Amino acid sequence: MKDLILIKRFNVTALFCLFACSFSCLYGSSYTVLLSDFTSQLDDWGAGAAYFHSKPKGGNWHLRSEINMEGGEANKNKMVIRRPVESNLIGSDPWLGNFNAKGIQSVELDFNNWSVDEPVYLRLALSNVAKPMISTGTWWVSRSYATFFPGSGWGNASFNILEAEMKRVGAFNGVVGQDTFEETLSDIQGFRFIASATGNSALGDEFSGAIGVDNIRLISSIPEPNRFAVIMGLLAAISLLRRRPR
Asked: Could you give the domains of the chain?
């Protein structure tokens, strides 16, 4: 009788633990669905000016861009952009596409400003067209920004992809698109980080200097398939424990 009571108590405890684990996995969790850490390549990220795969002595691989050190004036306002921008390749790019279906909720990255005298007010810009020089789409820019002063060293920036935290802005000609936030997120083709003090344009402010980017993460509320399988396994175990004969 005593053993039976202990077994029942164990089953209740196990049931509670499994339920708590499953609940925490299904609600209030976030998952890194994509990561570019530049360990072996640039992973189709680029910039407006000269950029390359860099690893200082004793440091980590990252994307380094030397803005306006090479190229014309138009390169000064392009920080980091998602490539490819060719229309025939956008559909297969895992960093682009339907953010609604993917449950995308935020993006994070590590950033370094090596400029001598120019700060960077880093923002996220998203659109259903590849670049601001196309006037037919709608651009959204984060209301918040991460400040990186000259010689900042490596720091982290995070942007929530929520309508309340982003605003609709104009393209190169100042025209503001009319697509809703949900409509834009259903077909993301433009994905870039810009330096902008006001956040009123997808073009960003002019900037001259070297920057570094590392560990770009795309965060979703939807578990990866293997994690989802674990959650389903936990729920199945809960079901078996509940149906076990007494």
From this structure: 1-29+224-246 (no CATH), 30-118+146-167+182-189+206-222 (2.60.120.260)
